[in-house]
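Lab notebook page, bench 4
Experiment: in silico fold of construct C2
Operator: M.H.
Input chain length: 333 residues
Purpose: comparison with the prior construct
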Amino acid sequence: MAPGGRRITSADVAREAGVSRSTVSYVLNDNPNQTIPDGTRQRVLDAARTLGYAPSAAARTLRSGRSDVVLGLLPDWPLGPAVGTLVQRMAAAFAEHDLTFVVHPGTRAARPLSEVWKAITPAAVLALDEFSDADAEAMRAAGVEVIVAMHGTTRERAREMPAPDNPIGALQARHLANSHTRLGYAYPDDDRVAVFAEPRLAGVRAVCAELGLPEPDVRTVPLDPHGAAGCVQAWLDARPSVTGICAFNDEVAMAVLAGLGRLGLDAPRDMAVVGVDDLPAAALARPPLTTVAQDLTVIAEEYVRTVVGALRGEPARTEPVTGRFRLVVRDSA
């Protein structure tokens, strides 16, 4: 930025290097049709670096025919550690392909999608939630690649990434079924994450049916010790008692642990608990929490690979985006 906050332009670089603006343009754009002496080229590059010159994004778009921006449409999800990590990993993976990842959260207060994509003029849109067919058609008509990674939808769209199989609930249930004959599911009290909670619960139900166990006892667990203690007591009062809990995530699992503590009970002696996400706090819980970890780097890279493939004109993928999941066994189960 020039003194006074003025943006550095190619004209400033030209004056600093003692060359014409066209020469600056040829050098900075690496124009293959122009032969620039090495000394002149180096003077331009040194001047640009000294002044902190950054080419206009709009100019880059005009030259290349598209921007380098990928617009990510997030649903109205709680922006917890798992979602934050996924966004960070996607941003890093896009950067390796010289693409900039910009996230737009889907909240009620957000601008209409049509205003957002027109303002940003992205090369591609990666949607993790529903949006209107009219928006999709308008974006494609403007030359924007639209890639949809839907969770829990039956709508079919071009460039839709199939939803992955969800092994999380099954991993939790199989681990607990080794020593517990009645399982419960600690459901979150936030409707925004039902799209994740339902497939995980379905996995628990499937394993219970497969192993001949009763249907899991599902209870909505609030993130406070008093409310969680009520759920714990109800599980223990059931007949037969529920002694193994598959929790939606680590936060809900730690609420269950807090509920146990409020009743003077312990895990795993009175009730075993398994979470999801392997948050840093999971290892610090009392007792340390058994949990399912997922490799968010792999998931992010697969999303990015799909977007980059679309920009290169490659055929749409037909296999689901998959992640690597592993059980991290600690004292709670």
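Observations: The CA atoms of residues 229 and 262 lie 6 Å apart. The chain has twelve helices and eleven strands.
Next step: discuss at group meeting.
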